[in-house]
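Re: beginner question about structure tokens

> Can someone show what the tokenized structure looks like for a real chain? I only ever see the sequence side.

Sure, here's an example I had lying around. Input first:
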Amino acid sequence: MKEELKKIMIESLYSVMPYIAYLGELKEFIEKEADECENIEAFIEKLKKLNEKSDIIRRTDGQIFLSELRRNLAKLGSD
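And the corresponding structure tokens:
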């Protein structure tokens, strides 16, 4: 994945940190998958699949991060 997208992912995580219950788990997932996924769409799909199997708190963490990531990606696209 492009470094620019990885940077957006990390920035998105940092901006929602106060709202994340399992920050370490989410950060670890992001760092691992950012290197393994070919593009942002593949990353989002992996996160959605992980969320399907997770408990309600981890699902909420994933949704908060995903919302922020999408918002930041939309800003990138509108520049």
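Each token stands for a local structural state, so reading them left to right follows the chain. The chain has one domain: 3-77.
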